[in-house]
């Protein structure tokens, strides 16, 4: 499809833009990693309350797990957002102990909603090195080739790339083919004042804790060089650079305008090689510890391609040509979640429509929600559903070559008290399979429990909940294996990651929860809800850890993508001190409190003198997470790009789309 263009208008700007992320146009940090957990939990909380499932989502690891179960957010009489919570879940006895809060404001059509992600005595301090480490990279024939954009999602220093942006500007950067077919870094932008648009290339691995990072020592080199061309010609960029100190400030210093480093004096429609003398580096930049290259658009709309970024000991040193990637065969498997099973049973036309849609869209496996009821009598509880109608639906799907997995899930199921329910449901599926014809049977069992949505998960009970959850998976695997059923679960992409303070998000006995899960189940579905394939916060970056371990253990991995409409979100962090908005903490009975968010320039008469002030604000557009407002062509393009990187992992089984009804709408819009 090529590098995407940027549409005009406020809606598109809102979809792409990020506000208040940077100082003078440069934002690095782990916020890109955080943007995964937030909307993930939103998704599940809506699913939990609105069966058949709807959804939302929530940002990346950290303590960012939305605690919506039983804790609704409301407006008080003054119109301020409130949130009722129990401090005991976080290990606190009194509100006066709280010194740090991280919250999300979901901007739903029905109104804003407040959720809590983290509560602490104080914000953790990240350990920094006494002296940053630098390294001279390997030099071959007077050249170090940093990136030819053929070898994957990171460069040869372990660095990622990503957009930087402030509304109303727009920016998108990815690896794609230039108009002449050359693989390159593609930067599409629309720079509008007072915002900015650009991208950075890291010269270090920013996923490592600062104490472990190694930066680039360029003292042996004379030039930074790269190929560059524009889509139309005349595009204007500025080149900037940051060392360790400026990267910590989330800022960079200017080297110069791009035209002064090009033979023609400006960017043209044909490729030119830019030679940037390292003597042009600002005097305040330390050459022994370079951290980032930053490209900023100067004005207007444009599209620029960059290739073969290198460091050389002399001008005109020959740049080695890249080795083309091997071609790959697309996976024949594609899954899809389906939550509205009850609406399909007994409706022949809808079942035929579903089967036909699967054929048109390439769906080969369906995760089908069980529309059961729990019947109770004096002796036991029984899981029941309309088995004759279910048999007809499954036979129609199997006749089209589609495998069907019985799907269920609830955060509470992770708790030991609810294990009987899960096991009884699995036994009900096994019994059903024994009473019907082979083409009317379920092929597997799938659970989408997401225990991190429980209010207690990110507090003092996390380890206990994880232990109970793994116990449930082990028991379920024993039962499904004896019955010859495949057993899979859905997980967020951050179960094996660290939060922005470099603390493990979910682990047990010093092992990531993802690995513990993969040791038990037959397959996983990663809720890898992003709309970019490449970059620091794209589909590829968030799935590689799971794919690697699953390949070692012989397990299968579905990569899940989102197509349903989600709300935008603003993430706020509060601490002691002064800030534009406040979070009041009203004491209730016992350890219960009511949070009141008072926006800036708003009067408050909250009856509490306990409050924290806003210190940080991050806007997360829904368009970062879901393809709901995009085209089916864009979804296919991202899958193709990501799949080209995933093919080297035997565990990669295919993509899975969430979910039937929203995917159907997207498909109807056409390419």
SSE diagram, text form:
Elements (H helix, E strand, L loop, with lengths): L9 H7 L14 H4 L3 H12 L8 E2 L13 E3 L5 E6 L13 E9 L2 E10 L12 E3 L7 E5 L13 E6 L3 E8 L5 E9 L4 E7 L11 E3 L6 E8 L6 E7 H5 L4 E5 L14 E6 L12 E8 L2 E13 L21 E5 L2 H4 L3 H14 L3 E5 L3 E4 L4 E4 L2 H13 L3 E6 L10 H17 L8 E4 L14 H21 L3 E7 L14 E2 L2 E2 H6 L4 E5 L11 H15 L2 E7 L5 E8 L6 E6 L4 E7 L12 E10 L11 H15 L5 E7 L1 H10 L2
Parallel strand pairs: 6-12, 19-20, 19-34, 20-23, 23-24, 24-25, 25-28, 28-29, 29-34
Antiparallel strand pairs: 2-3, 3-32, 4-5, 4-30, 7-18, 8-11, 9-10, 10-18, 11-17, 13-16, 13-18, 14-15, 14-17, 21-22, 26-27, 30-33, 31-32, 31-33
Helix pairs in contact: 8-9, 11-12
Summarize the amount of helix as a percent range: 10-25%
Instruction: Give me the Rg, rounded.
Output: 26 Å
Oligomer: single chain
Number of separate helices:
13
**By helix and strand content, what is the structural category?**
alpha/beta
Fold and architecture overview:
A hairpin with a 2-residue loop joins strand 4 and strand 5. This protein has an eight-stranded antiparallel β-sheet with strand order 2-3-32-31-33-30-4-5, with no helix packed on it. By secondary structure, the chain is α/β, with parallel strands linked by helices. The chain contains 13 helices and 34 strands. Mean pLDDT is about 90; it is low at about 5-70. The protein starts with 9 loop residues before the first helix and ends with a helix.
């Amino acid at each position: 499809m090529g590098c995407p263009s940027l549409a005009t208008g406020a809606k598109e700007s809102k979809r792409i833009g990020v506000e208040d992320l940077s100082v003078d146009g440069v934002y690095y940090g782990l916020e890109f990693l955080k943007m995964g957990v937030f909307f993930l939990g939103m998704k599940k909380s809506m699913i939990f309350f609105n069966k058949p499932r709807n959804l939302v989502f929530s940002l990346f690891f950290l303590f960012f797990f939305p605690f919506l179960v039983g804790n609704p957010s409301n407006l008080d009489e003054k119109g301020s957002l409130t949130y009722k919570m129990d401090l005991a879940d976080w290990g606190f006895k009194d509100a006066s102990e709280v010194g740090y809060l991280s919250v999300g404001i979901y901007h739903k059509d029905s109104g804003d909603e407040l959720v809590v992600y983290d509560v602490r005595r104080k914000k953790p301090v990240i350990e920094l090195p006494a002296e940053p480490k630098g390294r001279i990279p390997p030099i071959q024939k007077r050249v170090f080739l940093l990136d030819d954009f053929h070898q994957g999602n990171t460069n040869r220093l372990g660095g990622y790339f990503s957009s930087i942006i402030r509304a109303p500007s727009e920016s998108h950067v990815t690896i794609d083919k230039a108009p002449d077919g050359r693989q390159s870094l593609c930067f599409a932008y629309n720079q509008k004042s007072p915002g900015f648009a650009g991208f950075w290339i890291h010269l270090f691995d920013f996923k490592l804790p600062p104490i472990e990072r190694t930066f680039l020592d360029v003292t042996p080199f004379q030039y930074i060089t790269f190929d560059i061309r524009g889509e139309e010609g005349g595009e204007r960029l500025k080149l900037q650079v940051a060392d360790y100190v400026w990267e910590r400030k989330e800022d960079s210093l200017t080297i110069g305008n791009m035209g002064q480093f090009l033979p023609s004096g400006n960017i043209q429609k044909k490729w030119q090689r830019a030679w940037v003398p390292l003597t042009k580096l600002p005097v305040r930049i330390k050459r022994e510890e370079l951290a980032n290259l930053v490209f900023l658009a100067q004005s207007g709309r444009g599209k620029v391609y960059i290739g073969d970024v290198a460091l050389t000991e002399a001008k005109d040193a020959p740049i080695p040509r890249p080795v083309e990637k091997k071609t790959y065969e697309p996976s024949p498997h594609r899954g899809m979640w389906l939550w509205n099973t009850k609406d399909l049973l007994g409706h022949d036309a809808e079942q035929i429509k579903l089967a036909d849609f699967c054929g048109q869209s390439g769906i080969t496996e369906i995760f089908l929600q069980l529309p059961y009821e729990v019947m109770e009598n004096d002796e036991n509880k029984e899981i029941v559903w309309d088995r004759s109608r279910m048999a007809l639906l499954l036979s129609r799907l199997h006749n089209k070559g589609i495998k069907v997995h019985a799907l269920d899930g609830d955060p509470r199921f992770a708790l030991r008290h609810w294990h009987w329910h899960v096991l009884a449901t699995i036994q009900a599926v096994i019994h059903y399979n024994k009473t019907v014809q082979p083409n009317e049977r379920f092929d597997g069992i799938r659970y989408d429990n997401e225990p991190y949505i429980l209010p207690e998960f990110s507090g003092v009970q996390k380890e206990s909940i994880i232990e109970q959850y793994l116990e449930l998976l082990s028991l379920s695997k024993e039962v499904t294996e004896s019955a010859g059923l495949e057993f899979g679960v859905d997980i967020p992409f951050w179960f094996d990651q660290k939060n922005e303070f470099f603390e493990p998000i979910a682990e047990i006995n010093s092992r990531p929860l993802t690995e513990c899960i993969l040791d038990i189940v037959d397959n996983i579905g990663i809720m890898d809800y992003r709309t970019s394939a490449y970059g620091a916060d794209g589909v590829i970056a968030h799935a590689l850890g799971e794919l690697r371990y699953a390949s070692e253990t012989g397990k299968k991995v579905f990569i899940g993508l989102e197509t349903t409409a989600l709300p935008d979100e603003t993430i706020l962090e509060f601490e002691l001190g002064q800030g534009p908005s406040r979070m009041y903490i009203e004491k209730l009975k016992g350890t219960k409190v009511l949070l009141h968010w008072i926006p800036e320039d708003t009067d408050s008469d909250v009856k509490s003198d306990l409050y924290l002030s806003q210190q940080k604000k991050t806007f997360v557009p829904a368009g970062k997470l879901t393809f709901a407002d995009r085209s089916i062509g864009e979804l296919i393009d991202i899958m193709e790009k990501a799949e080209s990187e995933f093919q080297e992992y035997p565990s990669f089984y295919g993509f899975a789309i969430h979910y039937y009804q929203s995917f159907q709408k997207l498909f109807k819009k056409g390419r």
